[in-house]
Design brief:
six-stranded mixed beta sheet, five-stranded antiparallel beta sheet, 136 residues, mainly beta, 1 helix
Amino acid sequence: MKTGNLFKILLLIIFATTFIACESEEKDGDWEAMKWETNASNINKNKIEVPKEGGVYVIKCTNYKSFWINALSESGESLSISYEDEKIEREWYSIKIDDGNTMTVSILSNSSDDNRTLEIGIQAGNAFDSFLFEQK
């Protein structure tokens, strides 16, 4: 009988310390900022200057296994997208997400005299970021 009570007390202590140890000091929704690696040499605070000839840009998130596109705009005009889109093709650019955490943005040459911009909003859970591509 004493062994049974001792066993119950030990189990109670183990369960209590487990729940106390799992408490977190982090606030709900306090996600780490997204971190990136890219082949773009002309990037400044997620703004990429694209030459008139266009280019291909590979952007990899290094601290989240996957992300999705949550917003897209061309020259300031918001475009409708689906969160499931892993490939988006438009007249002068395409966006493709590979392996969940790598985005390839291909921008065609600009034969007009108009500047054009592409902004891609990105989300991983409750972490958000964006990239702005400007082409002259």
